[in-house]
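Researcher: Sequence recovery benchmark, item below. Answer with residues only.
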C-alpha cells in the first residue's frame, strides 16, 4: 500500500508551514551541497509483509475468512478481538535525540571544551550540550548531573530561572500533596528566590549549599524582597523652602524635596535643574504624565528612603514602575521589580504581571513571571494563554527585548512537550521558535531533527523530510533514518533503502543502520539485517519484536514467547510486555497474560493494548473472568513465592493486583517503587514513591517516603534528616532502614560501620514483614563482611534465607570465598541460579568461584542473558590482554562500549591503550570517561599520567 505524498491537515506543498520551514532552513543552514543527497527520481510502492491476522473474528472488520482458518487455535472466544500483532505497527520509533556516529569521540571532545572554557556562560552552554548528548544514553543520573552543572555555572538570571525550573520539573514535586511549585527544598540549586539574584559565578558558594530562604530572615538575607517597614508621617517632608517642589496632579499637590527627586535619574535632574521652564518653578503640573497622586507620593517616599514601603499596593507600585521607565529611574525601577516579584505565585498572576514587565522593560519582573510559568510545567502548557505566550513570534520578540528569549528556554519547553506527547500545531510552533533561537551548530541540528520527528508523528511527511535533510546536511548522520522513513511513508521504498545503503557504505556500521534498512527489505535479507542489528546492538528491541511476531504468524507461539523473553530479561518495556501478553492470549494462558498486563500497567497506568485500541485495565477485567481470583492473603503468599524466585515482573504484577483492591495503601506503592527501581524503571519508580508519600496517613511514614525521594534525587543529607525526624516521632523499621542505607552510601570507617550495624539491628527489632527484613539482614551481612566479621555475616545470610530472601545466597557465597571455601561458594551460587531462573547476575558472580574455563562459560551465559552487564566483557578483555592479544582485548571492550558507554570499560580500554603506547586513544577514552564522571579518581590519575607520557613521545 503506498502512502499519498500529499501533505496533511489540508496543507499543500506551498502551505505557510512549508514556506516557514524552508525559510528557517535558508536562514540557519548552508545551502544544500551539490554532493549531498541525490537519488534517482523513481518511486516504488513498498511491499508490505503482514503477519497472519484474524480479522474474521472482528465484528467491524472485513477480512478474507480463509486467513483465519489457517490458525485453528484462535476463535472468537480466545480474547483476541484485534487479531494478531501486525509487523507494520511495531516499527521502531525515530529517536528524537542527538545520536552521533561516534559517541565516545563526541563526549571526549566535549570534555576538552569544558575544561578549557574561558567563561562561565560558555561552560553553562557546554553542559547543556552535554545534556543533549546524554539524552541518547537515557541515564537519569547523568542527565540530572548535566543540568546541575549547567545551573552551577549559570551567571544570568534568565539561565538560572530556566535551569532551576528544569531541575524541579525533573523531580515533579507538584505530584506531592501539599507541595507548591514555588516551594524551596532547601538548596540553592532549585530555589526560586536564589534564581532571581543577579550575581555572577562564585566558586566559594556552591549551588549545592543550603539555601538561605529556609531561615526565618530569608527575605532579608537574599535581598529579593525589600524592606517594608512602615513609617509614621510618611508624607511629611522637611527642608528649606528653596529645596521644596510641588507636583500638581489634578486638584492634589504632592510636596517633594527637589534634590531628592532630581537624584532619581538624569532626566529628572535635567527637568528640575536644567534649562527647562520647570526648573524655575516651585509648582510643576504632572497631571498629564500618567501617574496618580498615590503613586506620586510613593515616588516621593522612595526618593527619601530608597525603599518600597509595605503600605504600597501592587497597583501603585506598577504605576511607579511605569513612571520609573518613563524617566529612566533605574534604582527605583529595580526596587519596584523586587517588590512585585514575590507577589507572583500563580499562572494567572504571571500572565497579568508579565505584560507590565514587557511594557516597562522590566527584566526581573518578567523573570519572576517566567519562573512561575516554568515551575508549573507540564500543566501550564495546557493553558492556551501560556502556550500562546511561548509560541507566538510577537511574544518571542517581547521576551527577547527583556533578555528572556533563548535556546535554553525553548529547549526546555519542547522537551516537556515531547515528554507529554503533545503533537498540536502550537507544539510545532514551539519547535519553530527553538530553531529561531538556535545559534550553535549542535543546537540547529537538534532543533531541526526534533521538529522532523514531531512532524513525522503528525504524518506531515514532506515537511518532516525537509527538516531531517537540514539536520543531515549539518552532519547528523542519524537524521538519515528520518529521511528514509519519510520517503518510505510516501511510497519511495527503493530510495529509502538506497539511502541507508549509502550510509552503511560510508560509515562504520552501527546497529540502528541495519535495523533501519530491514524496514525496506524482505525475506531472508530482512532477517539477516535484523540479526546483524542485534549483534551490533543487542539493546534494540525492534529485532526481537519483529522476529517474535513473525513466529506467531507461522504458529510458532512458544518460540515467539522465548524470543521476546530474550530482551524482557534485561530490558523491560511496555511494548515488549504487550507483545508477550498477546502471545499468552494466543496460547490461552490467561494467568500469564494477566501477570504481564498488570506489570505493564505498573510501568504505564494509561497504556492502551492492541496497538492503542483497548485500555489495559479493561482487558484485565475481561481476563479476570478466566482466571482464579486471589484473596489478599493469597496475594501475600504469591508475593513471597515470586520474591523468593527473584521474579520481579511477577512480584510487580501481584502488587498491582493488590493495589486494585486497596488503592490507598501507601506501603504497597512503596513496594511497587522498590521493584520498579530493581527493574531499572526509574521514572515509574519515582511516580510510585510519590504516590506512597501522598497516600501516607501518618506523619512518620510520610517522612520516610520523602526521605527516599530526596535520596533518589541526590539529596543525601536531607534524606538523613527526614529519617531522623521520623524516628523521633515513632521508631519504625523503614525509618531505621532509610537512615542506615543513607549512611552506608558513604565510605564507612569502623565507627560509622558500627553505627550502621546498630541501626539495622534496631530496624530488625521493629515490626515488618519478611520481605523487608530479608533485605535488612542481607544488608547487615554485607557490612559485617566489610568489617571482617565473617561468622556474623554468615548468620545474617542464613537467617535471610530462612525467610526466603534468595539473594542472600550471593552474600553467603562471598563469605565462603573469603574463608577460602571456593567449592562451597560455587555451590551456593548454583543454588541461586536454580532458584532465580537463570539469573545473569548469578552466573556472573559464580564465575568468580571457579576455574577459567568454567568462568568463561558462566560469563558467556551472563552476556547471553543480559548483554548490558559489563563485567563479562571486562573479564574477557583482561584474559585476552594477559595472553598478549591486545587487539582482541580492545575489540572485546569496543563492541560493548558501542551500545553501553560505561565508565569502567572506558577506563580499562584507556589503560590498555596506555600499555600499547597508543596515548592519543588512551586520552580520548579518559576524556570520555571523565565526561561521564569528572570526579573518578582512577581515571583522573590515568589521564594525567597519559598526558605526561604523550609529551615525551
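Model:
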Amino acid at each position: 500500500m503506498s502512502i499519498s505524498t500529499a501533505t496533511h491537515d489540508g496543507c499543500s506543498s506551498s502551505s505557510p508551514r512549508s514556506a516557514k520551514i524552508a525559510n528557517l532552513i535558508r536562514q540557519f543552514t548552508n545551502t544544500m551541497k551539490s554532493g549531498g543527497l541525490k537519488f534517482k527520481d523513481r518511486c516504488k510502492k513498498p511491499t508490505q509483509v503482514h503477519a497472519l491476522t484474524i480479522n474474521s473474528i472482528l465484528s467491524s472488520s472485513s477480512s478474507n475468512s480463509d486467513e483465519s482458518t489457517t490458525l485453528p487455535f484462535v476463535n472468537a472466544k480466545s480474547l483476541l478481538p484485534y487479531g494478531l500483532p501486525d509487523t507494520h505497527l511495531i516499527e521502531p520509533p525515530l529517536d528524537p535525540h542527538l545520536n552521533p556516529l561516534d559517541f565516545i569521540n563526541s563526549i571526549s571532545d566535549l570534555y576538552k571544551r569544558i575544561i578549557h572554557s574561558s567563561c562561565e556562560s560558555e561552560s553553562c552552554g557546554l553542559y547543556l550540550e552535554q545534556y543533549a548528548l546524554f539524552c541518547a544514553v537515557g541515564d537519569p543520573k547523568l542527565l540530572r548531573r548535566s543540568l546541575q552543572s549547567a545551573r552551577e555555572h549559570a551567571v544570568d538570571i534568565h539561565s538560572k530561572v530556566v535551569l532551576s525550573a528544569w531541575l524541579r520539573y525533573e523531580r515533579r514535586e507538584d505530584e506531592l500533596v501539599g507541595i507548591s511549585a514555588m516551594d524551596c527544598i532547601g538548596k540553592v540549586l532549585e530555589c526560586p528566590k536564589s534564581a532571581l539574584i543577579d550575581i555572577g559565578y562564585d566558586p566559594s558558594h556552591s549551588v549545592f549549599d543550603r539555601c538561605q530562604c529556609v531561615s526565618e530572615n530569608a527575605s532579608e538575607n537574599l535581598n529579593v524582597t525589600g524592606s517594608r517597614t512602615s513609617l509614621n508621617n510618611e508624607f511629611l517632608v522637611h527642608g528649606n523652602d528653596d529645596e521644596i517642589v510641588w507636583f500638581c496632579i489634578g486638584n492634589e499637590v504632592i510636596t517633594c524635596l527637589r534634590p531628592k527627586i532630581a537624584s532619581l535619574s538624569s532626566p529628572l535632574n535635567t527637568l528640575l535643574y536644567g534649562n527647562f521652564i520647570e526648573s524655575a518653578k516651585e509648582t510643576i503640573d504632572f497631571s498629564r504624565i500618567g501617574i496618580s497622586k498615590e503613586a506620586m507620593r510613593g515616588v516621593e517616599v522612595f526618593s527619601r528612603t530608597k525603599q518600597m514601603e509595605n503600605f504600597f499596593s501592587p497597583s501603585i507600585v506598577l504605576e511607579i514602575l511605569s513612571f520609573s521607565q518613563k524617566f529612566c529611574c533605574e534604582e527605583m525601577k529595580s526596587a519596584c521589580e523586587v517588590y512585585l516579584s514575590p507577589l507572583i505565585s500563580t499562572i494567572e498572576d504571571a500572565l497579568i504581571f508579565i505584560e507590565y514587565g514587557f511594557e516597562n522593560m522590566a527584566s526581573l519582573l518578567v523573570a519572576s513571571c517566567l519562573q512561575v510559568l516554568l515551575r508549573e510545567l507540564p500543566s501550564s502548557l495546557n493553558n492556551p494563554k501560556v502556550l500562546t505566550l511561548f509560541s507566538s513570534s510577537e511574544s518571542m520578540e517581547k521576551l527577547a527585548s527583556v533578555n528572556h528569549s533563548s535556546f535554553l528556554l525553548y529547549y526546555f519547553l519542547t522537551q516537556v512537550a515531547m515528554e507529554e506527547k503533545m503533537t498540536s500545531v502550537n507544539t510545532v510552533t514551539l519547535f519553530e521558535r527553538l530553531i529561531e533561537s538556535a545559534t550553535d551548530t549542535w543546537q540547529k541540528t537538534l532543533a531541526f531533527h526534533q521538529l522532523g520527528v514531531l512532524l513525522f508523528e503528525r504524518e506531515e511527511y514532506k515537511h518532516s523530510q525537509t527538516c531531517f535533510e537540514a539536520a543531515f546536511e549539518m552532519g547528523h548522520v542519524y537524521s538519515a533514518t528520518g529521511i528514509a522513513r519519510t520517503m518510505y511513508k510516501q511510497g519511495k521504498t527503493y530510495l529509502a533503502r538506497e539511502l541507508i545503503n549509502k550510509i552503511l557504505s560510508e560509515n562504520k556500521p552501527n546497529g540502528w543502520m541495519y535495523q533501519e534498512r530491514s524496514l525496506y527489505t524482505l525475506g531472508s535479507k530482512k532477517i539477516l539485517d535484523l540479526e546483524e542489528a542485534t549483534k551490533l546492538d543487542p539493546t534494540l528491541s525492534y529485532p526481537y519484536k519483529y522476529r517474535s511476531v513473525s513466529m506467531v504468524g507461522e504458529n510458532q507461539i512458544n518460540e515467539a514467547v522465548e524470543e521476546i523473553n530474550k530482551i524482557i530479561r534485561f530490558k523491560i518495556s511496555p511494548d515488549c510486555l504487550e507483545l508477550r501478553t498477546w502471545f499468552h492470549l494466543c496460547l490461552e494462558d490467561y494467568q500469564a497474560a494477566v501477570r504481564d498486563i498488570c506489570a505493564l500497567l505498573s510501568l504505564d497506568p494509561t497504556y492502551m493494548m492492541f496497538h492503542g485500541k483497548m485500555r489495559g485495565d479493561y482487558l484485565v477485567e475481561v481476563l479476570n473472568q478466566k482466571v482464579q481470583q486471589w484473596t489478599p492473603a493469597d496475594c501475600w503468599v504469591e508475593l513471597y513465592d515470586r520474591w523468593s524466585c527473584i521474579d520481579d515482573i511477577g512480584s510487580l504484577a501481584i502488587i498491582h493486583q493488590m493495589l486494585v483492591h486497596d488503592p490507598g495503601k501507601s506501603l504497597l506503592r512503596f513496594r511497587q517503587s522498590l521493584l520498579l527501581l530493581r527493574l531499572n524503571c526509574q521514572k515509574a519508580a519515582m511516580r510510585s514513591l510519590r504516590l506512597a508519600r501522598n497516600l501516607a496517613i501518618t506523619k512518620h511514614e510520610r517522612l520516610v517516603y520523602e526521605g527516599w525521594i530526596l535520596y533518589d534525587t541526590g539529596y543525601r543529607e536531607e534524606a538523613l534528616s527526614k529519617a531522623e525526624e521520623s524516628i523521633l516521632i515513632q521508631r519504625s523499621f523503614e525509618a531505621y532502614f532509610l537512615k542506615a542505607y543513607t549512611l552506608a552510601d558513604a565510605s564507612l570507617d569502623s565507627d560509622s560501620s558500627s553505627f550502621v550495624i546498630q541501626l539495622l539491628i534496631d530496624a530488625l527489632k521493629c515490626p515488618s514483614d519478611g520481605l523487608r527484613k530479608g533485605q535488612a539482614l542481607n544488608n547487615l551481612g554485607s557490612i559485617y563482611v566489610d568489617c571482617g566479621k565473617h561468622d556474623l555475616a554468615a548468620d545474617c545470610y542464613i537467617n535471610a534465607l530462612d525467610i526466603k530472601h534468595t539473594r542472600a545466597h550471593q552474600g553467603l557465597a562471598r563469605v565462603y570465598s573469603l574463608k577460602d571455601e571456593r567449592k562451597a561458594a560455587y555451590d551456593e551460587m548454583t543454588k541461586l541460579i536454580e532458584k532465580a531462573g537463570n539469573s545473569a547476575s548469578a552466573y556472573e558472580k559464580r564465575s568468580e568461584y571457579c576455574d577459567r574455563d568454567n568462568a568463561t562459560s558462566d560469563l558467556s551465559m551472563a552476556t547471553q542473558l543480559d548483554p548490558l552487564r559489563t563485567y563479562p566483557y571486562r573479564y574477557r578483555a583482561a584474559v585476552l590482554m594477559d595472553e598478549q592479544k591486545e587487539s582482541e582485548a580492545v575489540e572485546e571492550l569496543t563492541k560493548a562500549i558501542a551500545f553501553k558507554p560505561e565508565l569502567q570499560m572506558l577506563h580499562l580500554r584507556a589503560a590498555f591503550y596506555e600499555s600499547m603506547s597508543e596515548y592519543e586513544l588512551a586520552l580520548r577514552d579518559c576524556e570520555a570517561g571523565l565526561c561521564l564522571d569528572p570526579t573518578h579518581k582512577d581515571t583522573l590519575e590515568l589521564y594525567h599520567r597519559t598526558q605526561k607520557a604523550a609529551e615525551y613521545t
